[in-house]
Structures are given as structure tokens and as C-alpha cells.
Amino acid sequence: MSVRVNQNDSAILFKLDDLMAEHNMSKNHLSRITGFRFETIQGYYNGSISRIDLFVISEFCKVFNCKIGDIVEFVSDSEVENQ
To answer: What is the rounded CA–CA span in Å between residue 12 and residue 68?
Structure first.
């Protein structure tokens, strides 16, 4: 597994970019179908948010027909150090 370090340097990895690539979906398209501001999508895409909104995650799960773990993952310090 390749571990990406989020812009907020937390141990939480956001995998929205992977899901969007799998579904060939742009940030603009995701913004339109969810009704979320582009900046909100961008924050989850880059991992630059500091607070997780459960409603947003729920809507992503609906759009991608996935589970929360497909969007958000905890990465231990040892996994980050091994990269």
C-alpha cells in the first residue's frame, strides 16, 4: 500500500481521489451531483480538511456505492515511517 501524507499531517488518509479515478469522475461533476461546494470536494480530495462531516461522507458513500472505509482510513505511524 502506498501511503500518502495529507496536507493536514494527520494519520487519516482520504481516498476520495482513488474513488473518483475508478469512477472516471471529476471534482466538478462530484460537486454538481452532491450539491457540495467545489472547495469542500477539494478539501476531501487533498486531505486538507481538519473536521470530517459525516453528512458529506454519507453522500460520498451513496454516490460511489461504497463503505466509509473506502473513503477514510487510519494510517499508523509505522506505516508512514516505512514509506
So the answer is: 12
